Amino acid sequence: MNQSDVRALLHRRGICVIIPTYNNVGTVGRVVSDVLDYCQDVFVVDDGSTDGTTAVLQTIAGIHHIHYDRNRGKGHALKVGFKAALEAGFAYAITMDADGQHSASDIPAFLDANRRWPGSLILGSRSVRGTAEAKGSRFANSFSNFWFCVQTFHRLSDTQTGFRLYPLKRLYGYRLITARYEAELELLVFASWHGVALHSIPINVYYPPKEERVSHFRPGLDFTRISILNTFLCILALVYGLPLFLLRTAATILRMLAAILLLVLPLVCIFTPMVKIYFSIGKATEAKQRWLHRLMYRVLRFAALVIGALGVRFRNHISSDTDFTQPSVIICNHQSQLDLIYLLTLTPRLVFLTNDRIWNNPYYGFIIRHAEYYPVSRGITDLMPHFESLVKRGYSIAIFPEGTRSADLQIGSFHRGAAFVADELGINIKPLLLYGTGRALHKHSIVLHSNKVCLESKPVITPEELQTKGGLKQQTRYLQDMYADWLSEVSDKMDREV
Fold first, then answer.
1. pLDDT digit string, tens, across residues 59-93
2. What is the pLDDT of residue 185?
3. Separation of alpha carbons 105 and 96, rounded Å
């Protein structure tokens, strides 16, 4: 990704850069200029500089320059910057020091981390080995890391770094933080107490020679202040942080129990036996199959409401002119077991291709088979007569082109089955995209998390339009690329709301 792409993507995702500065006349101009190469939204908070820093900043176009006369400390400057960024509508802020130790070339790494972990607080982890600062910095960082772990039960490799990405809408207690260096530690502790995910990424660090270095750290006074703060935070952890952690844990357990009681047990103990009894009486007719599809439609709409009550907020952004009464090949990306629930609430006339594990499931495999879902292992060519029959009866065929749930929540390689089926049957492809289900219920997790989920649609793709893309391989690649771009657009929009 080149610098212009980074600038555009940062802006689209609502990410700005905040640079607090105090008497950095020798470095601040270069630092801000380097940052502007990567980010077009830069807030520089001039914390009462008296050495000409203000004059330098006034010559730089395209920045938000915030100045006040009296030096108030880095913590106060950060609060002022956060407030200005929030009022300007930004969702995230990358903070950097003005002394030149941080490199603007690491900004793309923060962008990548934000796309991977939206809503998280990202910390740049420094490596100071081999520098003149190594011994003192390692001790100070180890000291801070130890007390942070005591206060939050969370281990981090670098709690003193000032190069961070903050989720602005999840800055708990930022208006109450102290005014000096220790404010950054407070922000970390409060974020951890409130369940904000914390992630570290490696960054470069540069320590200028001693004769060029500008430091406002006063070892005796500031170390005493930090020690007093750590004592206070340890006490507060017992009366505030620990109860919050226990409440979150209890809420997670209650969500799991509620999901089992309201979804899993009714499916296993009521729904499946009822269907088995119904189909055991007489022949398995087409009328019985239509009844089963209507029943599944109603049951899963109820399941979606239950999941919503458990914290998964669903938004249906499907275009009002999308017609599900006309048979088509419906394709969708695949992130979670929740995907089928949301797709099956769209219409009762929908069947899925599935895998052998689902087809042979001892609890609900009977329903899957009688709903005329077919395993991919039988081969698309052999399944075509069944698909033709379903389409003639008004059903759409739903296919996950990736074939499996995506562990990294990105678009995986598409298989050719969807394009082949649409071409053979001469029906349209309806593209749908789900976002957020993989974070609500990850592929490798059984824990349901609160999260926003949205379902979007694009106009149908006709067989004639698809054939203009080339052969089956080219058609499949076209669909995969379309989904990769689509997912990026939706994530940029949704992640601003996290």
1. 999 999 999 999 999 999 999 999 999 999 999 99
2. 87
3. 12
Identify the bridge partners of residue 330 per DSSP, sorted by sequence position.
Answer: 398, 430
d(CA 145, CA 468): 59
* Segment among 121-125, 177-181, 471-475 with least mean pLDDT: 177-181
- Distance between CA atoms of residues 172 and 193, nearest Å: 9
Measure the CA–CA gap between 78 and 21, rounded to whole angstroms. 10
Average pLDDT (7-23) is 97
Torsion of CA 484, 490, 496, 498, to 10 degrees: -90
Q: Where are the alpha helices (DSSP H) in 260-311?
A: 265-266, 272-280, 286-309
pLDDT value at 219 more than 60: no
The total of other beta-carbon atoms located within 10 Å of residue 335's CB is 28
Q: Which residue has the tokens 């771009």?
A: 485
481 Cβ neighbours under 8 A, 6+ residues apart: none
**Phi, psi (deg, nearest 5) at residue 182:** -65, -10
Q: What is the pLDDT of residues 139-150, one digit of tens each?
A: 667 778 888 899
- Tell me the one-letter amino acid at 307: I
Q: How far apart are CA 235 and CA 242, in angstroms?
A: 10
Which two tokens mark 385? 């007569």
Query: Residue 175: phi, psi to the nearest 5?
Result: -75, -15
SS3 category, 336: coil
| 135-179 pLDDT, tens digit each | 555 666 777 888 889 999 888 988 889 999 999 999 987 777 776
Dist CA 152 CA 156 (whole Å): 10
298: which residues sit within 8 A by CB, 6+ positions away? none
Confidence at residue 134, expressed as pLDDT on a 0 to 100 scale: 46
Q: Which amino acid is at 231?
A: T
DSSP structure string for 387-408:
HHHHHHTTPEEEE-TTSS--SS
Cβ–Cβ < 8 Å for 492, 9: yes
Question: What whole-number distance in Å separates Cα of residue 186 and Cα of residue 180?
Answer: 11
b/e map of 367-383 (b: 16 or more CB within 10 Å)? bbbbbbbbbbeeebeeb
Rounded mean pLDDT, 374-400: 94
Residue 153: both structure tokens together: 């039960």
Give every strand in the sheet of 64-68, ordered side by side.
64-68, 42-47, 15-21, 92-95, 164-167, 121-125, 198-202
CA atoms of 433 and 431, how far apart (whole Å): 7
3-state secondary structure of 332: strand
Do the Cβ atoms of 405 and 336 come closer than 8 Å?
A: yes
> Over the Cα atoms of the chain, what is R_g?
28
